Amino acid sequence: MTFFQEINEENLSGVAHKNITLKKAIISYFVKTGSCTIADLCAEVGLSAPKINAVLNELITDGLVQDFGKIESRGGRKPNLYGLVLGSGFFLGVDVKQNHLYLGFTDLQKNVVHITDERPYNLENSKESLEELCALINAYIKESHVPKDKILGIGLNLSGRINYATGYSYSFFNLDEEPLSKRLEQFLGIRVFLENDSRAMAFGEYSTGVVHEEKDVLFLNMDYGIGVGIVINGQLYYGKSGFAGEFGHIPFFNNEIICRCGKRGCLETEVSGTALTRIFKEKLLSGSSSILSTMKIDEINFEHIIQAANNDDVLAIEQIASMGEKLGRGIAVLINIFNPELVILGGSLAETGEYIRLPVKSALNKYSLSLVNNDTHIKMSKLGKQAGVIGACLLVRNRLLSIL
């Protein structure tokens, strides 16, 4: 059995389990160091040189590790240097949005191999929508020319309540008693890990984006809904059931608007892409003008409004500013509770740049405790639309290889 088969085998025990655990530790060390000698690996994992040599030979046979040859030494025999084979293993990330998705690959060294532009897809809680999603993933794998047997795992992001540890989604595709991750594995033939989209985006940004030395970070995913990915002391925070970060469902307003969660007055009812679209259409119906006035009102969506704002449409800019002030009040609550080093504004609404950042920043100064927010920086996402795909890939890599 090759490493690619072993890593997706969940019921290994005894010698086989010890062997795959050792292989993971060796590959993880290569990921962190780039290359090393057998002596380095012996010191890292605490095993003898013959045992390490035997495992390295297996990984060389599997096409994952290569021998770079002798290196210079101060005395005695020159040791051989080993490292990962470029392009030997890949991780596929799938970031599912309301009406499109992004897909992409990273390699073992967390280099981005390829990421798509948005692909049309309507997310609906139905068997047909799930089957369409699987068909799109399989089509992308085929067109990417990445060998399917070299894909170590798939990370799939969905909005709403996800329990990554059990593989259940409680907001979408909770169609039977079987975990969604298992159903996807049956369709795709590859190990699948589910994640909440805001957490995956937060991890992508934390790992390769705008974050530098900060360890306590909040990532605001401003899309059709509002979610937050929480990083505490360098680790994603999940909460007891894995549902931490449902920021958009705080009962923030005393209104009678029913949220998609079924409750009234949630933050999302007035601060989200869904709310912005509703309010914008109401303004048009009441006589306000916009560059979108020539469109049929029923056809106007969140993305149209963002594009309008970026084309200096006054109505769109005004509504985004109003929403930014309310969002800033909500973020002020988070800052007062978590006292983070950094708050990142991401998601579709972040594409409007200063139109959303400035009102958020103004509200933060007004509503958060000055002693608390003085040490909190506000930055825009660096990875943008790629954050979710990159985060999904890196989370799968870290979980499969037990990288902390």
Could you describe the 3D structure shown?
- This protein is elongated.
- α8 runs antiparallel to α10 (314-338) and α9 crosses α10 (314-338).
- It is built from 13 helices and 16 strands.
- It folds into 3 domains: 3-84, Arc Repressor Mutant, subunit A (Orthogonal Bundle), CATH 1.10.10.10; 90-202 and 388-401, ATPase, nucleotide binding domain (Nucleotidyltransferase, domain 5), CATH 3.30.420; 212-380, ATPase, nucleotide binding domain (Nucleotidyltransferase, domain 5).
- With 404 residues, it is of the alpha/beta class.
- The protein has helices at residues 3-6, 14-33, 38-45, 49-61, 127-144, 180-188, 197-208, 273-285, 302-310, 314-338, 354-367, 370-373, 387-401; strands spanning 35-36, 65-70, 80-84, 90-96, 100-107, 112-115, 119-120, 151-158, 162-163, 168-169, 192-196, 217-222, 226-232, 235-236, 342-346, 377-380.
- β12 (217-222) and β13 (226-232) form a beta hairpin.
